Amino acid sequence: METTKVPYSIYAESTPNPSVMKFVANKLLIEGNALEFRNIEEARPSPLAYQLFHFPFIREVFISGNFVALTKFDVIDWEEVTAELREFIRDHLTEGKAVIDPQMPVETAAENEEVAAVGSPSVELPDPESLGEVERRIVDLLDEYVSPAVASDGGQISFVGYEEKTVKVLLQGACNGCPSSTATLQQGIKNLLQKMLPTLVDEVEAVNG
Questions:
Q1: Where are the domains of the chain?
Q2: Is 188 exposed, middle or buried, given 0-12, 13-18 or 19+ CB atoms closer than 10 A?
């Protein structure tokens, strides 16, 4: 039986990180937690990410919701490859090829709280049930005020911990290694938390930034 093709449209969008380009689809690609792949071996559960690593200039692949954020090596300019990548992703999806192989489930933070995401095995995310009152308030503020903006830039931020008035977060996608990440944390997230939770937050640290 011939597979019915579902039309997809893809557009490319720059991010604050010059090494990352965001490719946005008109349909949902995955549900639940974002997935981050840092090499071709990690990408085996994702046929889309695995094929994208065959482009020699691709360094990392981040998939969340309706977009794919690609990080490149500094060997080529985006304007030279963006159209090719956009067409490749569109064709992969339109032809009905899987984003995630259902026979090779990806272990995510939601399924294993000791693993934040593929490619970040050393970062532990806390069990939501174990959070104290201040920690829950921090998570709620991050979810409401910070996460939407970070996602729009092709990234994701996750709460890791709170100790001695320091909030620790995990940055993924375009935010990881972004030149503006430190400034964003210091000037944006830190100021927000200090305003909303006076006397409770002194610093904000990225565990991988």
A1: 128-206
A2: middle
Give the pair of three-digit tokens for residue 108: 């995510």
Nearest to 46 by CA among 9, 98, 85: 98
Question: What tens-digit pLDDT sequence spans the chain (209 residues)?
Answer: 455 677 899 999 998 889 999 999 999 999 877 899 999 999 999 999 999 999 999 999 999 989 999 999 999 999 999 999 999 999 999 999 999 988 775 654 334 333 344 444 457 788 888 899 999 999 999 999 988 888 888 888 889 999 999 999 888 887 776 666 666 666 788 899 999 998 999 998 888 75
Rounded distance between C-alpha atoms, residue 203 and residue 46, angstroms: 36
Q: The domain 128-206 belongs to what CATH superfamily?
A: Fe-S cluster assembly (FSCA) (3.30.300.130)
Confidence (pTM): 0.75
